[in-house]
Specification:
By secondary structure, the chain is α/β, with parallel strands linked by helices. It contains ten helices and 21 strands. Strands 1, 4, 5, 7, 8, 10, 12, 14, 16, 18 and 20 form an eleven-stranded mixed beta sheet that branches. Strands 3-2-6-9-11-13-15-17-19-21 form a ten-stranded mixed beta sheet, covered by helices on one side. A hairpin with a 2-residue loop joins strand 2 (90-94) and strand 3. The longest helix is centred in the last third of the chain and has 18 residues, at 396-413. It is globular, with a radius of gyration of 21 Å. Mean pLDDT is 90; it is low at 9-15 and 436-441.
Length: 441
Amino acid sequence: MTLTRAAGGVLAGREPHRDDRDPAWLHEARLAALEWVGVHGFPTHKDEDWKYTALAPILAVPFEAATVTSSNWVTAEMIDAAAVDLGGPRLVFVNGHFAPELSRLTGLPAGSVVTTLAAVLAAGSDRLEPFFSHTPGEHHAFAAFNDALAEDGAFIHLTSGAILDEPIQLVFFSNAGGVPLISSPRSVIIADSGSRATIVETYAGTDGDVYLTNAVTEFVLADDAQIEHYKVQLEPVTAFHLALLDVHQGHNSRFTSRSVMLGASIARHEVRVLLDGIGAEVSLDGVYLPQGDQLHDNTIFIDHAATDCTSNQLYKGVLDGHGHGVFNGHIMVRHGADGTDANQKNKNLILSDRAEVDTRPRLEIYTDDVKCTHGAAVGQMDEEALLYLQARGIPLEEARGLLIYAFVHEMVDRIAIEQLRTQLEPLVAGRFRKDDRPVEV
């Protein structure tokens, strides 16, 4: 069944799958979400936050909802090839469902919890109700579909003062087995006061498979909590990737997120941050590298709702072939949010006259005592620099690769985890090479 038919009411008029162990509030939230999609439909170019991203290729595919039994066999070697093992707790999900035989839950501080969404729901706890009880489709239809279809994902609760020395790794791997699947992982991370951790999300799948990853990851940071977050998107170019990262920050909390977007035919990394406590800070970085017919969309909304908060954004894109990049950044400074310090930058390097980038940095300010800057730049390869390198005996393609990597290396260098940086450096450096020689970085 296509998502378009679902929006027309076919799926919305039918009750979603219900586990007998699901609490009543969850079933009601799922029904409300499907009904919302049936009434409102999916975003179009008339929606400001979707005007540059065509959804027709996604809506035309007859996706089936992934189930536990729909996942084909995935080996540890396949997971290791997609996501380097970082040594700490590691939760692996195949087609959106937990794979315990591929996972590891060790090295946790006393009192902290690293488990799965399905386990929390099965325990009959109401602690997840606030995450499903917002207005259905509060953001858009795909968020509502995640409300309706999400059965599993990570659940992490860091108790007050908990400090994790090793990163918590979340690996989402898709293996459709010839059937177009939609997986809807939902992850919730709660960081109590003074806690500190690093979370690494990796999304990957089997080459040639057609599927849609429709993910939602939610962070709630209490006062003085610190979270460092990484997201690596390596889906095959036959797949689609839509994801929402939703962050709520308390007093003096610190949240850092760095994303690397390499894969998928159409990929959207949406980030929404609410700075709701005095002195909260957020830093968002991203690099996106579409080539061929790929489209990479970065839509960012930072809501400064409290005084003396700081936000910094730096996103860089490199585009080749018919690649299409989108940066849609929106900063809102609300009444009373005095002392706001907000900075937003987007830089793009276009390698082909057929590539396209739409960049739209925005500031919306409703108070006076603020310091806000924003800007965007789009340029092509520096021909003089290219000739300079060639004149010193560096072959054309190698010189081209060096200049591209010089543009994006700042983003890779910001990755503090050595194993992750070592994995990504050659992938980024070799992204636009025209030959098969190994890349040295």
